[in-house]
## 1
Amino acid sequence: MAGIASKLARDRANTLGIGTNENPRKYLNQDFEALRAQCLASKTLFEDPTFPAAQSSLGVKDLGPNSEKVQGLVWKRPSDIKPNPQFINEGASRADVRQGALGDCWLLCSIASLTLNTECLCRVVPIDQHFDTDYVGIFHFKFWQYGEWVDVVVDDRLPTKKSKLLFVKSTSASEFWSALLEKAYAKLNGSYEALKGGLPLEALEDFTGGVGDQYYFDKAPDNLFQIIQKSLRQRSLVTCCTQSSDGTGEIVVSTNVVKNHAYSLTGAEEIPYRGDTVQIVRVRNPWGYKEWNGAWSDGAPEWDEVDPNVRADLRVDCDDGEAWMPFSSFLVEFYLVEICHLCLDHVCSNDKHKWCLTEYNGSWTAGCTAGGCKSNPNFWTNPQFQIKLEEPDEDPIGGTGRSLCTVIVSLIQKERRRKKPEGGELFSIGYYVYKYPSNGQLGKDFFKKNKEVARTDIYRSHRGVSKRFQLPVGDYVVVPSTYYSSEEADFCLRVFTERKAETLEIGNMVEANVYEPLMNSSPDTEASMAAEEPDEEKAEYTAEDLRSYITNLLSKRDEIKSDGISVKTCKEMINLLDVDNTGTLSNEEFNILWKKLEHYMEIFLESDTNSFGTIDAHEMRIALQRAGFNLNNRIQEVIVQRYVSGELMVNFEDFIACMIRLETLFKMFNILGTDKDGNISLSLSEWICAGLV
């Protein structure tokens, strides 16, 4: 219950504008300005109790207490490492990011790419921070997290060995913004160890709120160079990755390229060369050294045949980990490019380069919305989102001349990195895109009979998967899923279009049209007569009476496999029909109740296809619809939590209890009355009374 309330509170906060970059949510409820003021008043240096200078902030395995990497580790403030420390020295640049002992090159190459866009950098790294006036050892950084921005506070105690930073460091030994940013990101993900291993796109999205585009070279389009070049000109952030055939560790090969490593991609140019043109790209190793030594590298002879003005603009002659290389060699040495496109709500170079973004937060819940991939029979129960593409691109890539709409669909599974040190794994995730049917029916039969028009290439065990499509104008539905059914996780689905598009969640309605039996003017005593010892003069039924009568009646129904109804469920039945608040039912009310129960019995039997006396949790959705309830995914998930067993089955009593409870809630809502917006207003006392029913 508390978890549900927290989600609702978060949604309401977002509607009030909390979670924007200008008004970020305070991570762990820590207010930077308030904490800073407290430290100034008490003349103390800030010590963060939520991410202390202790083993718990380092990790449990690779950086655990027995790890060689943490032996001799000392937490020090910058002033204890270097005299006259500076937050940023002469502007932040990619040279400020040099990898340390932590295997987080994926993060650091993303930080280096971030420095290429000053506006974006200033959103993540507030620049009005320093070690001078009013310094109290507290800093803060802002990150995008699944649709909202959060402000993360840290103290400035950093892990060192022999008075040198153990993890990321700047080329300038007195500069500390990158080390503090790394610490804040470690806090956001639970520990430094949680940052080991990953793909750069994850951090790029968290730094910008942008949407990623992934290109694996084995399936890359012919115009990949043009896509990269256009993205860099639009000030998108671009990274690239290498891999080795055996996949073991970071290995430096003869070309000085590091395998199983992540790089920043900082330039893409076509330049005149020997009467023709050559495509070259510039890549940067976050180590700050070990750069490409082949054609077009620093000092390579190819530069001698290039126009001096072009050479002056592009050439870099120093061992800083950055070098130009032929695009043809790039395709051999690397295997993946990731592009982070910036969103409408965040900084871009100008209006022309802004994209339109729609995003949804949802969940895969076992027995409800975790239907697995398309080969799984419960695929149809996965969340579904409709996209209306109404305007084609102004300048579609590829120049086909067709009225096509560029769409990037990004799917992110939440909070999995935080679970990584304890053995938590990323699920394999993906999605399918279908043409939306004219009748709007998207049940089990639709997905059996219709083929998708687009999909992710394969299900991948990444935090996020994304892909670019070009689709004709029209209506589509996106179905995100894990590969295996019943895998539970929260997710964020984002749809990124070059032109405006409409998006909505399918089935996001709450309404009921329940069965109401028509009663004769004289009481129907059939149910009472079926009891073992009927009492025709009985005027009222308590919960104990109901339990006895209904259990006895059910025992005469061989097709219903039930041991009876509990007193607790009988109290729910009384709450539904007891309008005079006596805590009992009259004979007439009892007969109404029995007719309702007979109606729900028939629905249960229809759903119990194998006659085991239970129904599959996924079939509960159809059963609810047969009973007249159209409910959104959030309510469906709560029903699963409350009424479905660990084996993802619903027995007869829980089914009846669910139907009765839903009827009661809808009835209460209607009785209390709503305002013009369809909302009710309750005092605390009224809310507690209603909740205790």
## 2
Amino acid sequence: MNKRSIATVSLSGALDEKLRAAAAAGFEAVEIFENDLLSFGAGPREVAALCRDLGLEICAYQPFRDFEGMPEPQRTRNFIRAERKFDLMQALGTDLLLVCSSVSPASLGGIDRTADDLRELGERAAARGLRVGYEALAWGRHVSDYRDAWEIVRRADHPAIGVILDSFHALAPAFPTRSIRAIPADKIFLVQLADAPRLELDILSWSRHFRCFPGQGDLPVADFMEAIAATGYAGALSLEIFNDQFRAGSSARTAIDGLRSLILLEEQVAAKWPKPARQTLAPKARSRGTGFVEFAVNETKAAELAELFGQIGFRKTGKHRSKAVERWSQGKVELVINCEAGGFAHSHYVTHGPGVCAIALDVEDAARTMAHAEALKARTFYQPVGPGELEIPAIHGVGGSLLYFLDTAGKNWDTDFDAIASDASGDRLRAVDHISQSMPYDEMLSWHLFYTGILDLKRLPQQEIADPRGLVQSQALINTDRSLRFVLNGSAANRTLSSRFISEFFGSGVQHIAFICDDIFAAVADMRRRGAGFLDIPDNYYDDIEAKYDLTAETMAALRANRILYDREGDGEFFQIYTHIFDERFFFEIVERRNYRGFGAANAAIRLAAQEREVRPLGLPRI
């Protein structure tokens, strides 16, 4: 069974903080990065003792740079330097030194010369019971391909010399992975794993700043792993990530993300991995849409929110039997207003103010989904329930909100709520179309992995949206039948609407919910009659739409009159309109799709500019 490892360079903080985070997440081993040790206030023996106390094996010390192919006197000096590193390794209690291919302009190159240097280094290492792993850097001066590194190791022909294989160095330059299958397992001393988004950058910059965990990027890491599996390799699988966001973020969160990514990657290739394998994850349960969305408010805001719900066509259909909680319904959409002066919703309100505190997801098998989430280190949530009340399995989600899992539609309403009769014949909204959540930009990779790991969601290409105050990155995640869609938004600019939401809401959360209907013009007409107000869109926008598309005069007039936005992709059409922002925190969107699969990204800048005109100017206090 392969040990799960992480390189300390992947995490933020001092070395002891990194080690504690790795152990707490569930890693069994670490690679000690040289700079982490050199800058630490305690010596290698103290670090070794800490690792023992934490249950962590030190599987490697790295990197040893610019060793091979050097002329004299550098060559002699390098062997002296290596002996000092061997002393340090023995104090640390690790037996593997990572030597990466030289980038020094003084390096002479030559496969046989390099093999000779490694053979001599192997002799010195073996005399101390140590090993040396040789890794090809993708930007190495003479050795940049793992196949050349393996040939050098083969020619060195020493039991203490092996090859180190890194997914990034193999996949970023698009080297074929099939050749890995021919390398004997006992000559692979370590496997390092990293993913990355596809970027038009030189490989060094790409590697140093944009690596990410497997599953967060675009490289075929699973193909690399399958090739490793074919060798029978049984050593550590170690995450080595250079990423500016990770180095600035929470070491605890990053470590959990890392372990989650490793579990999911192992699961992808479990059928091809040598036995004994770890216990496999239960298959993901199919998601079927949104069960309900719960809003935490106080009594005053509850009345205001209920008024807004009524204006956009929702009916009060239930009252909780023992709590200050109401159910509002329309089509398949279920909304909950919770102003109970206690419990989780109240705590969420006290922390964040009015907003979404929980989302219930309709899944095929709630117990299996919960087990899958727990195996991936999601934080579970339990709250005491009253006599006869339904206990719904839940985990913590974005911004400390909850994700509930429901597999019996309607059961919670029948158990916990007294029904209130209402007429559903006038319902215009059919279902929740998508839920948009705002978060700090450096958390987007984490939540993308969370959602796609636990649920049957796939990511669409990330898009860049122009806010009047900066750029916003938007990542859509959808299930197969598009009954469940999340849109994650993050911005590095601190004055965008997305960033202001995080500031106003005191954390990440749901910024808007979109509802789908079959006839947006009829729906909006009904809503306006009930007193609903909508975001004002400039006439300039409609002049452009009229010039861009061959819409009928009647359709154009209806768009202008109602301030409805329009987009087209191929033969697909999309109509959307937005409510005003509720309490400067969240808003609702009404959409109609006609064979259209996107989210109206072409209109996002228009919407954001219109909202910018409506919100309180920056710097003014809330009243």
